[in-house]
Each structure stands twice: as C-alpha cells, then as structure tokens.
Design brief:
This protein is an all-alpha fold. It contains 16 helices and no strands. The two termini are about 20 Å apart.
C-alpha cells in the first residue's frame, strides 16, 4: 500500500478538521455508553426494587476492573494498527488485525471463565450486603458469559479507529444500545427476570455490536480486511500489542483501586459529603468523557504520524488536542459553576448540607480540571509513541501512588476541613503527573525519532 493512497490515513488533509471529525464520534460513543449504563440503572430501579439496584452497584466495580484491563490491551491493538497504517506496511497491518481478533476471542473466553468463577467470592470480599449477594452474583455471571462478544467489538472498534474511522463504531453502538434498551424492558417487564433480564439484554446487545463490527471488517476491501478462516496469533505481533496493551490495562486497573480508596475515604466523612460528591461527580464524569475523547484521538494520530515519520505535523496534532480539551474544560466547567445550584438540585433535594459539600468539591475540581484533560492528551501521546510502559510508570507514581500516599498521611492526620483536604489531592496529582508526563514525552520522542529515522518531507499540497 502506498502511503498516500488510502483515504483512511490521518497524516494528510486539514489537520484541525481531521482531529475534530475523528474525536466527535468517539465522544458521542463514550457518552452513549454512559447513557446506556444509566438506562440499566433506571430500569432496575424503577421495575426491580432497591435491592437489585444495590446489587448492580455492588457488581459495577468488578465489571469495571476487568473491562478496564481488557480495554487497556485493546489500546495495544489501536497503537500497533495506527503505526502500521502510517508506515504503509500491508503485511504488518494484516498480521496485527488477525492477531488482534484472535487475542480478543482468547481474552474474552479466559476472562469470562475467570469472572464467572470469582463472581461470588469477589462480592464477599467487597462486603456485599447479604440481601444483594444473590442478585449481584447472578448479574456478574451472566455478564461474563458475554465477555467474548464485548472483546470482539472493542478490539474491532480499536482497529477501525486506528485506521481513522470513528463513525462506524458509533453507529454500531447506537444499534446495540437500541437493542439493549428494548431487550432490557422485554426481559424485565414481560419475562419478569429482574436483574438477570438486564444482564441478558446486555449480552444480546454486545453480540449485535460484535457481529456488526466483524461484518464490516470481513466485507471491506481496505487493507485491514479480516479473513475469518485465517485468524491466528502471530507471536511477534502479539508481543507488540501486549507490550503496549498490558501496561495500559495495568494503569486503568490501578486507577480503579486508587479511586476505590478515595471513595472509601469519602464514605468516612458522612452522608452529606457522600451525597454531595456523588451529585457533583455526575457532571464531572460528563466533562471527563468529553475530554477523554481527545486523549483517545491523540493516541491514534500520534501513532500514525510516528509511523509515517511526520513528526512536526504530529506535534501540531497534540497541540490541537490540548487546545480542544482546554476549551471543553473551561467552557463546561465554567457553565457548571455558573449554574451550580440548579444543576446540583437535580440530584440533591431538600438537603442543604449535601448541597454545600457538592459546591465545595466543585470549587476544587472545576478550576483545575483542565490539567486532567491535558494530562490525558499527553499520556495518550506517549502511548501513541509506543512507550506505554513509561507512561504507566509515571501515572502509577504521579497519580495513583501520590493519591494513596496523600490519603494515608495528609488526609489521615487532618483534623479540620477534611473534605477539602481530601479533594485537594485531585488537582495536586494532576499537576504533578502532567509535569512528569511532559518531560517523559520529550525524552521518548527524541529516542524514538532517533531510532526511526529523520522526518519525511511533507508534500507541498498537503497541510
């Protein structure tokens, strides 16, 4: 494949337009996934009762931990595919695509079996209330039955995004989401299956998404075409994928652990703080998802441009993504602060103490959330370079490690303003990690460029 013949290359055309058109479908896909989780909870809460809703809440950390590990591995697929697309190596692309789908099936089966096996015991370790244990265990076991479908979709979507196509994963998620809602209602209202019905509906939607992404990969005439009968693991390509993917998965899983520790500290501060933090967290998550889409964009753009040896344009890609997250953070967090009272009262009714705590957390997070977005972009850029181990090391030390140390020392010894003391670790960890990640980026960029060779000359007609 000639470097300049495929319409999927991100190394050509108007840079700003490319970044925006790539990132918006990613953003919408992420927001849709958040919305579907909310719908699951609404269905459970409205039609199944508080115990089943609590059971869903107990099961969520286990699901998040496993999913984050496997999504981290799929990042390896995205980076390796994008680098191969940028370099125009057809053989590399073919082997990476087929290795990725074989890995998706293998990971789905292995982690599905593990998840089913540890479902009940993991809930016991988390002190799941006895009246919710049965429902949470049922949900987890059914959910993990569909793990192969989840992995096939996510790895397939990673391949498409790495080639520059973010619209099809969005369309497939919309279709799967519609199926999910319909089957949830059918299994719960018509069949009376309760929380098991929601889990079955989720499996069906995951199957639909997996079929749609595989159908396109099989039928496409592009260089990343998938041949089902030729799916196999190429050891060297698997090693490359795992070299990027495993550290990313580890980074995500440790984030989950650190967040659980912080949430436990929040829980120790009383009901008002817990309620307030939860209310504010809904809006914080919305802004974070919007910013994360540009971090995911940076991974693919940096990887393709590094493969194509277009380093100056790669730098501009990163700057565009940083500008985008800055605008998102300043505008959305500014609006949240301006309309904080009516927004928070959507979740907090007749509880002035909780409202006060929510405003306190918002006052700490909103002004500094921009650093979180920039950190994600720079971290994604380091992963796009293929230096996932280094990125993970900085994240573990600068974010996770620092937060755990803060909770164990500063917060533990605080006697006044304990909620403010706890929430302060978020901006502190973002800023410290960002400084370290920027230094790491320039070090790794220099090393990789030295290894890959000099800049490819840009054509006069290209931007």
């Amino acid at each position: 494949m000639s470097k300049n013949t495929s319409h999927t290359l991100l190394t050509e055309g108007n840079l700003v337009a490319r970044v925006i058109t790539f990132a918006i479908p990613v953003m919408l896909t992420n927001m849709l996934q958040m919305f579907l989780t909310t719908i699951d909870n609404v269905v459970i809460g409205q039609f199944c009762g508080s115990n089943d809703l609590g059971a869903m809440g107990c099961a969520s950390p286990v699901v998040s931990l496993i999913i984050n590990i496997l999504l981290g591995i799929s990042t390896g697929t995205a980076v390796c595919t994008a680098q191969a697309m940028g370099s125009g190596n057809k053989k590399d692309i073919y082997e990476i695509v087929h290795t990725s789908m074989a890995t998706a099936v293998a990971c789905g089966v292995i982690f599905g079996i593990i998840g089913i096996g540890i479902a009940e015991q993991s809930l016991v370790w988390m002190a799941c209330p006895s009246e919710m244990l049965s429902g949470a265990t049922t949900y987890l076991r059914i959910y993990f039955l569909g793990m192969p479908f989840t992995m096939i979709y996510n790895f397939g979507a990673a391949i498409l995004r790495a080639t520059g196509d973010t619209k099809r994963p969005l369309y497939y998620m919309i279709a799967a989401g519609a199926v999910n809602v319909c089957f949830n209602l059918f299994f719960v209202l018509v069949c009376g299956l309760g929380i098991a019905g929601v889990a079955i509906g989720t499996i069906v939607s995951q199957l639909i998404a997996a079929i749609l992404v595989c159908r396109y990969l099989v039928k496409t005439n592009e260089v990343f075409r998938l041949e089902i009968k030729k799916i196999k693991i190429y050891p060297k390509k698997l090693a490359r994928i795992l070299r990027v993917g495993i550290p990313s998965g580890l980074q995500s899983s440790v984030y989950c652990v650190s967040n659980i520790v912080i949430q436990s500290s929040v829980n120790s501060l009383g009901a008002a703080v817990v309620t307030g933090a939860s209310a504010q967290g809904n809006y914080e998550a919305f802004v974070s998802v919007a910013m994360t889409s540009f971090a995911q964009t940076a991974i693919t753009f940096v990887a393709q441009h590094m493969g194509a040896k277009k380093y100056k344009r790669m730098n501009r890609c990163i700057l565009v993504c940083i500008c985008a997250v800055s605008v998102i953070s300043l505008s959305l967090n500014g609006l949240m602060w301006l309309f904080r009272d009516p927004l928070l009262r959507v979740f907090i009714v007749d509880n002035e103490a909780a409202l006060k705590e929510a405003v306190l957390r918002m006052s700490v997070i909103c002004p500094f959330h921009i650093f979180c977005g920039i950190l994600d972009v720079v971290s994604g850029s380091v992963q796009g370079l293929g230096a996932s181990v280094s990125s993970t090391s900085v994240s573990l030390a600068g974010t996770c490690g620092l937060r755990l140390l803060w909770v164990a020392t500063v917060f533990k010894n605080a006697t006044e303003n304990r909620a403010l003391t706890l929430f302060a670790i978020y901006p502190i960890s973002w800023i410290c990690s960002l400084i370290a990640m920027i230094i790491l980026f320039f070090i790794m960029r220099h090393r990789i460029i030295k290894r890959n060779g000099p800049e490819e000359p840009l054509e006069p007609t290209k931007n």
